[in-house]
Amino acid sequence: MCGIVGYLGKNKAVPVLLAGLHALEYRGYDSAGLAVFDKENVICEKAVGTVTALEDKLVGKKEIGDGLGIAHTRWATHGGVTEINAHPHTDCSNNIYLAHNGIIENYKELREKLNEGRHQFKSETDTEVIAHLIEKIKNENENIPLEEAVRLALGRVQGTYGLVVIDKREPEKIVAARNFSPLIFGLGQDEFIIASDATPIMKFTNKVIYLNDGEIATITPAGYRIQTIEKEVIKRKPEELDWDLESAEKGTFANFMLKEINEEPEAVRNSIRGRINLEEGKAVLGGLADVKEELRNINRLHICACGSAYLAGKVGAYMLEEYAGVPVEIEFGSEMRYRKLIFEKNDVFLAISQSGETADTLASLYEAKEKEILTLGIVNAIGSTASRETDAGVYQHIGPEVAVAATKSFVSQVSILALLTLFLGRKKNMSLVMGQRIAGELQRLPALMDKILTQQDLIKELAEKYSGYDNFLYLGRKYNYPIALEGALKIKEIAYVHAEGYASGEMKHGPIALVDKKFPSIVIVPRDSVYEKNVSNMEELKARGGPVMAVATEGDKDIKQIADDVIYIPKTLEMLTPILSVVPLHLFAYYVAVKRGLNVDRPRNLAKSVTVE
Ligand code: F6R
Fold first, then answer.
1. Domain boundary among 194, 217, 241
2. 292 lies in which domain range?
3. Confidence at residue 490, expressed as pLDDT on a 0 to 100 scale
4. 309 CA distance to ligand 1 middle (Å)
5. Are residues 447 and 525 in the same domain?
6. Whether residue 471 sits in one domain with residue 588
7. Residues 149, 234: one domain?
8. Is 171 exposed, middle or buried (0-12, 13-18, 19+ CB in 10 A)?
9. d(Cα 443, Cα 376) in Å, to the nearest integer?
């Protein structure tokens, strides 16, 4: 949510900042802006709309500015989408410029006090108070360095921030600070690039420093210094990024979402690579090695996640209960953080998050840490907050996911939950034979997913056929109930089509009233333990005149007799069918959105990495 970039180095800042904003645009794209030093001055430009709108404003002006600047792409929280509300924000005297990601909770109170002190506010944002607070502190303390003024200002602020600040009077310095909103800086050859995540940094260097909550970095041509808000000096060595540049570019694909759906088999391959011992029917999860004895005695697993990651967790709950015998509770981060959490001895918490930065998931993680239970993570972004704050975990290893909608991260998370089932199950009651079956089938999955992707033309045709409907009911049972929810979520978010995801059996308790010839259903009906029940539900839909599209197992000719249209997926173990059945649903949502002429990578009102509550 909101993307921040900062640059200090030997090159002109503007092109670097614009390229960085493009790379971060998936985090927010309401408006964008930048502020760059130009000799003694700072030039600030803003535009409503995408980064391209800002770029258009700068046509012929890319040569402006020197080698230091900050930039921002916004996902509005406080104040409408206007040029004035776009970042960077300034103080009254236009000396201080800052870009912020997060929410300042006590901004109203601060603003009132600053107003009394005659500070003039230009925008409606919460962010602007920080600029005025820094100005006030600087006015009251002659010659105070920017980093100290920022430190004192942040001491008065409640809320979350990733922040970069520059001051016209200190032309060779960027101050960056973090509290619950990620900030990283890369150390290049005589240059520094600061960003909300690694994507803009990869082009320059793989050496990065992750700021922790409550830390402030001062970056100058001479190097960097980190201190805490309490003024403790922190020594931190750079870490290495292992993401490659190619995975952050869309290559020959029309957009990132299509590329990432086509990478789903590869994502599963990468997530399970080196983690299966077929002979012993076991999962080898190095990231859990240090806590394996605690896991042997696990009493209950509490899964916490948001959005698609939550739905992946829901599939995992079925797997872990059925095959590992581990009781599972699963809850949205936004709910768990406000619940009275009752943990028992040997309970374990598991956060699932692609970005590792989702605010609600992290808040629940901190709550679990407070209760001193073992915390685990399934995370993609290396070095992200969730990966650092959990006691142990499993990385997804799928490279950056750029399109706002989760696709390859979802199948990867489910495959890791299958590995976890194997890992825990074999420590409990799972037999060698069952372990080998699951392990073998997991290894076959990527090839089966490749096979589904060969049906893209058919899925596109079906999506075009159904693209005129305004409502859909997605139904699934047991392992495929979360897939019904995921299919509905995806078509809502990228195609702006209303869809309800439902457990098939619940349909007759209400939603069936909606069904008529204008209300199609998509039923996930593989040949599994609940097949007959799902078929009955399909019959009920057809009896009410509702069009039905089914996702069924290859060779199931009976389904063709009932459903209007069928997409076939290969046969696999029941617990692994979600990894296959979700692929056509991702493609279906994608092609409906394309047919409706929408920007699939950047759906309206959304942003990747939801770092605010
Ligand atoms: C849906 C989607 C979101 C994310 C959710 C969690 O397509 O992308 O629902 O799944 O915001 O994000 P992470 O996994 O980064 O915690």
1. 241
2. 249-452
3. 98
4. 6
5. no
6. yes
7. yes
8. middle
9. 24
Find the CATH number of the domain harbouring 459. Answer: 3.40.50.10490
Strand partners, 219: 174, 224
The whole-number pLDDT of residue 62 equals 62
Give the phi and the psi of residue 217 in degrees, each rounded to 5. Answer: -110, 140
- In this structure, what DSSP letter does residue 118 have? T
Q: Examine residue 606 and state whether it is found in any structural domain, yes or no.
A: no
The count of domains in the chain is 3
Instruction: Tell me the pLDDT tens digit for each residue of 566-602.
Output: 999 999 999 999 999 999 999 999 999 999 999 999 8
Please, which pLDDT band fits residue 29 given cuts at 50, 70 and 90? confident
Instruction: Quote the pLDDT of residue 91.
Output: 97
Distance (Å) from CA 138 to ligand 1 centroid? 40
Q: Is residue 263 part of a domain?
A: yes
Q: Mean of the pLDDT values across residues 75-100?
A: 94
CATH number where 20 lies: 3.60.20.10
Q: How far is the CA of 355 from the centre of ligand 1 (A)?
A: 8
Indicate which residue's Cα is closest to atom 10 of ligand 1: 308
In a domain, 607, yes or no: no
Residue nearest to atom 11 of ligand 1 (CA): 307
Q: Are residues 439 and 477 in the same domain?
A: no
2 is catalytic: yes
Distance 85 CA to ligand 1 centre (A): 26
Question: Which atom of ligand 1 lies closest to the CA of 305?
Answer: 16
Q: Name the closest-CA residue to atom 5, ligand 1.
A: 307
Q: Decide: pTM greater than 0.85.
A: no
- Looking at 404, 423, 452, the residue that finishes a domain is 452
**Closest residue to atom 7 of ligand 1, CA basis:** 405
3-state percent breakdown (helix, strand, coil) of the chain, nearest 5: 40, 25, 35
β partners of residue 348: 301, 374
User: What's the one-letter identity of residue 318?
Assistant: Y
**Residues 425 and 277 occupy one common structural domain:** yes
pLDDT of residue 28: 74
Residue 305 within a domain: yes
Pocket test for ligand 1, best of 354, 408, 410, 490 (most atoms within 8 A of CB): 354
Ligand 1 geometric centre to CA of 111 (Å): 33
Which residues form the pocket of ligand 1, taking CB atoms under 6 Å from any ligand atom?
306-309, 353-355, 358, 361, 405-406, 489, 493, 609-610
431 and 310 inside one domain: yes
Instruction: Name the β-bridge partners of 210.
Output: 184
Could you tell me if 74 and 196 lie in one domain? Answer: yes
Maximum CA extent, the chain: 82
The one-letter code for the residue type at 321 is E
Helix (H) or strand (E) holding 36: strand 31-38
Out of 245-254, 396-405, 498-507, pick the least confident: 245-254
Catalytic residue among 2, 44, 304, 306: 2
Across the range 277-300, mean pLDDT stands at 96
Compute the distance between CA of residue 271 and CA of residue 267 in angstroms, rounded to an integer.
6
Strands 498-503 and 471-476: parallel
Asked if the model's pLDDT at residue 266 lies above 90, the reply is yes
Q: Express each pLDDT in 437-493 by its tens digit.
A: 999 999 999 999 999 999 999 999 999 999 999 999 999 999 999 999 999 999 999
